[in-house]
Design goal:
With 35 residues, the chain is mostly helical. It has 1 helix and no strands. The relative contact order is 0.10. Keywords: Membrane, Transmembrane, Transmembrane helix.
Length: 35
């Protein structure tokens, strides 16, 4: 079972992936809503 620093790095990586996806979706959506 993986634990310790490796696990926190993995969690940070997942959070960065979610953030990148959210930005990729939100930026065009906001631009489209603003017209």
């Amino acid at each position: 079972m993986i634990d310790g620093p490796t696990r926190s790095i993995h969690i940070i990586t997942v959070l960065f992936v979610y953030l990148a996806v959210a930005l990729l979706v939100a930026v065009p959506a906001i631009a489209w809503l603003r017209g």
